[in-house]
């Protein structure tokens, strides 16, 4: 199992949790972004810079991820592609995407895009909170413990 991170918009606090998890669980964490990212020195952590462009990082992650891997992303279409590969997709707010929930998320995303295209102000997501950080850390711990049991 590897962890792939859609890192362009991933909150710093989530990256820090992932860095600690990489060391604790001795698992490869790869940050993927179209900009150069800081990573602490570690054999378990690396960053990959991809060219700028629409969905370039997402497409790279989809190409690299394998069944059983974990992908950290808030991008709904990317999560959908990851689930199709039998990998696990986790939102930085701690929501685990599933085959049951992804269709609803895609439909809501498309609906909101339609509203915005018609000029309706929809607002953005709520500010990232301590509760979001805690939910992510708890979900990550569950996933890592499950992966460790299956090794």
TrEMBL record:
It comes from the Bacteria. Pfam families: DUF188 (PF02639). CDD domains: PIN_YqxD-like. Transmembrane segments: none annotated. Belongs to the UPF0178 family. This is UPF0178 protein SAMN05660284_01011. It comes from Formivibrio citricus.
């Amino acid at each position: 199992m590897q962890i792939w991170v859609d890192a362009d918009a991933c909150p710093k606090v989530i990256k820090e949790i992932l860095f600690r998890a990489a060391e604790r669980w001795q698992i490869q964490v790869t940050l993927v972004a179209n900009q150069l990212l800081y990573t602490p020195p570690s054999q378990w952590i690396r960053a990959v810079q991809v060219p700028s462009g629409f969905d370039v990082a997402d497409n790279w992650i989809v190409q690299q991820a394998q069944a059983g891997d974990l992908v950290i992303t808030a991008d709904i279409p990317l999560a959908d592609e990851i689930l199709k590969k039998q990998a696990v997709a986790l939102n930085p707010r701690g929501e685990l995407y599933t085959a049951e929930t992804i269709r609803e998320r895609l439909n809501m995303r498309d609906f909101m895009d339609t509203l915005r295209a018609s000029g309706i102000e929809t607002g953005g997501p709520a500010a990232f909170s301590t509760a979001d950080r805690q939910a992510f850390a708890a979900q990550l711990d569950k996933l890592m413990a499950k992966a460790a049991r299956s090794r």
